[in-house]
C-alpha cells in the first residue's frame, strides 16, 4: 500500500480523475497552488478536457 495523505487515506475508496507530471517538486507545488485558486466549475472543466484527451490515446 502506498502512503498517502491522511485525509484521503481515511476516505476510501478514491478514484483518480486527473494528474499532471512535473520535473521538480517546486513546479508541482506551484501548479497545486494555482489549481487551489480555481473555482469548482473551473476544476471540473479541466478534468473534463483531460478525460477527453485521455480517451483518444
C-alpha termini separation = 28 Å
User: What gyration radius follows from the Cα positions, in whole Å?
Assistant: 13 Å
- What is the percent of helical residues? 55-70%
Give the number of domains. Answer: 1
**Which geometry do the CA atoms define?**
globular
Give the oligomeric state of the chains in this entry, treating copies of one chain as homo and distinct chains as hetero. Answer: single chain
- Mean pLDDT score: 88
Number of helices: 3
Secondary-structure element pattern, one letter each: HHH
Strand content: under 5%
Count of strand segments: 0
Low-confidence stretches: none
Briefly characterize the structure.
This protein has 57 residues and is an all-alpha fold. 58% of the residues lie in helices and 0% in strands. It has one domain (16-56).
Describe it for me?
It contains 3 helices and no strands. The protein is globular and about 30 Å long. The chain has 57 residues and is mainly α. The protein has one domain.
What attributes characterize this protein structure?
mainly alpha
Topology:
Elements: H1 6-9, H2 25-36, H3 40-56
Amino acid at each position: 500500500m502506498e502512503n498517502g495523505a491522511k485525509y484521503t487515506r481515511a476516505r476510501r475508496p478514491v478514484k483518480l480523475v486527473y494528474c499532471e507530471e512535473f520535473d521538480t517538486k517546486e513546479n508541482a507545488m506551484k501548479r497545486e497552488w494555482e489549481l487551489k485558486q480555481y473555482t469548482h466549475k473551473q476544476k471540473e472543466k479541466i478534468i473534463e478536457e483531460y478525460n477527453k484527451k485521455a480517451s483518444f490515446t
